[in-house]
Amino acid sequence: MIRFPFFLLACLLLAACGTGARSFYVLGSDGPAPSGGGPGIGVGPVALAEYIDRPNLVIVQAENQLGIAESHRWAGDLSASIARVTATNLGRRLNTGSILTYPWRGDDGLRYQVTLDIRQFHGAADGHAVIEAGWRAYALPERRIVASRTFTAREPLAADGYQPLVAAQSRLLSRLADDIAASLR
Length: 185
Prior knowledge:
Blueprint: H1 3-18, E1 23-25, E2 40-48, E3 56-62, E4 65-74, H2 78-93, E5 99-101, E6 110-124, E7 128-139, E8 144-156, H3 162-184
Helix pairs in contact: 2-3
C-alpha cells in the first residue's frame, strides 16, 4: 500500500522530466492604440480553422502534412490574441481608443463590429508565414454589412526559428488591419 504513492510520484517526476523546456509566444501589435475617444470598434468573434485552434504553433511541412511544435506554444488563447492585436492595430490606423474585443456587454458606443474567420495562420516550409482571413465589417446598431473580403498574404521570416515565425505572423496581422481600415475609412 505504501509503495503505490511513491510509484505514482516517481511516474509523475519522470513524465515531467521527459517534456523538455517549453517556450511560449505572444503576437505583437504595432504599438498601443491611441487613448481617448474616436469611433467605437469591436473586434470579434474570431473563428479559427480547426488545425490551428490549439495551443501549439503549426508548420506546414509539405502539401497536406502539418508539423505541430510540441514545445513551442501560444502564451494564451490564439483567437483572443488575434482579436486583441487586430483591435489595437485598427485603433492605431483609425485613430481611436474606443476599441473592444468580443465578447462585450452591449453595442452602445460601437460604430463597427469586425468579425474574423482565420482559415490559415501557420509557418510554411519555404520560410514564410501565411494567413488567409475572411473578415466582415458591420455598421452598428443596424448590423448592416459595410465590407466583406478575404485577405491572403505571405510574409518572409527574418531568420529560421519560432520567434521569427511569430514576428512574421504579427506583421501579417498588421497588414490585415491595413486592409480592414482601408474599407472603414
